[in-house]
Design goal:
Elements lengths: L3 H8 L23 E2 L9 E9 L8 E10 L8 E8 L2 E9 H4 L12 E10 L7 E10 L5 E11 L9 H5 L4
Antiparallel strand pairs: 1-8, 2-3, 3-6, 4-5, 4-7, 7-8
């Protein structure tokens, strides 16, 4: 199974969580529902400066635009990995370790990721068939030498699609 959709779900579909006006110390800056896993990120190899998602919240069948900026403190080389967990309510859908360098090709990046400023721009067409419900996604990312890169989590709510109603005239058996 390709992990590109679940991996990007953390960054992308995570925007489907309810918008929050107050920002806490774990909230990722920008217009998104992402949260850092740990308040102490001083040893992380990446500083995430901002992540903006449009629209926020997205809906199944929509195109989602992701804009993210940050700073890479040390070059990230082949062998970096992500521990990815995805749950649907209390049901574990995915719990796996994936090759970070293979997954980031989906956002037009390649390893090594050099030290310095980084910008990501990506559009994702979300499938119409995403089942409604609450998804919890966590990605904990490490270098090939097990140095912590970052950890992000999001709670994603996909609402059921509204059921179309027939015109009132059809219900009453005539034209209105």
């Amino acid at each position: 199974m390709r992990l590109s959709v679940p991996f990007l779900a953390l960054i992308a579909a995570g925007a489907n969580a309810l918008s929050i006006n107050r920002r806490g110390e774990l909230d990722v800056p920008g217009h998104n529902p992402l949260k850092f896993c740990d308040p102490d990120r001083s040893n992380d190899l990446i500083t995430i400066e901002e992540v903006n998602l449009e629209p926020n919240p997205p809906q199944a069948g929509d195109t989602l635009v992701i804009r993210a900026t940050g700073t890479v403190k040390e070059t990230i080389e082949d062998g970096a990995y992500v521990n990815l967990d995805v749950r649907y309510g209390y049901i574990k859908l995915i719990s796996t370790q994936a090759d970070l360098c293979k997954e980031i090709k989906n956002v037009e990046l390649t390893c090594p990721i050099e030290k310095g400023k980084i910008e990501i721009f990506k559009t994702i067409d979300l499938p119409k068939e995403i089942p409604p419900g609450r998804y919890i996604v966590q990605a904990d990312v490490y270098s090939k030498d097990d140095e912590h890169i970052t950890c992000l989590t999001a709670t994603v709510y996909f609402k059921p699609k509204p059921i179309g109603r027939p015109p009132l005239g059809n219900l009453l058996g005539g034209d209105l």
